[in-house]
Amino acid sequence: MGQVNTSIVPEFVLLELTQSFGMRTFFCFFFSLFYVAIIFGNLFIVFTVVFDSQLHFPMYILLANLSLVDLGLSSTTVPRMISDLFTHCKVISFHSCMVQMFFIHVMGGVEMVLLIAMAYDRYTAICKPLHYLMIMNPRKCMVLVIAAWVIGMIHAMSQFIFVINLPFCGHYSVGSFYCDFPRVIKLACMDTYKLEFVVTANSGFISMCTFFFLIVSYIFILVTVRKHSSIDLSKAFFTLSTHITVVVLFFTPCMFLYVWPFPTKSLDNFFAIVDFVVTPVLNPVIYTLRNKDMKLAIRRLSRKVLSSMEIT
Description:
Keywords: Cell membrane, Disulfide bond, G-protein coupled receptor, Membrane, Olfaction, Receptor, Sensory transduction, Transducer, Transmembrane, Transmembrane helix. This protein is mostly helical and 312 residues long. It contains twelve helices and two strands.
């Protein structure tokens, strides 16, 4: 894994979020509370989908995988963020930095594909309801999930193989509270213009193109429904508004982090916190509070748990 790098760069220095003790205490409480909510909220969705047979449909299988990805994405950064708030020397080893970057982009790539798959699922359910079960069969759903993980791995590896062998020397400050490809690349003691463009294209332009593709696809669904029935349009919009909200929450920080030409530390930190802390806790809330089937499944699961407790 790069002997030259590990011998020259034993560790990177991470950025301190704030020097104020009061703000560190606030961030510690904020991150801890949200991380606990992320764990329980996303695992609750996974368990509900797994144990409720009435949710064994493509939409909810994809949703369960999205919850697992949100949990994994947060776990790559949030525990480290919390532990670093009250440590004087905020350093991360070369190996830990590489692992963190790799899994951030694996999870990000998987989530991107899952959101596309969920858009396709909604298009089929709304625009081709009579053929839905034939088109979105269990086999195709499994293929979509596997494809998401494969593409996520390829997305991360296509950048990781270049960064892992970069020569680092001199300045080791990452300039952020977590490791990411654009920031680590700038620390290399060589011309990295072409590599920076590859990372921007891989993470930034792809995110931007996927975002606009999803928004256009949702608009297309609404236009298609409107041609058939104005009553169905309101139902379709209510259903799609949940998906559109999740898409905006996920892709907006990605586009600012990787495409925005005038980055600042404060803006980058804000969008990173939104991506790692806020969005993963909002997704379960959005999907459970605005989904009738999920709310019914939660009630059924609650009754089962209560009845089992009464028996014991």
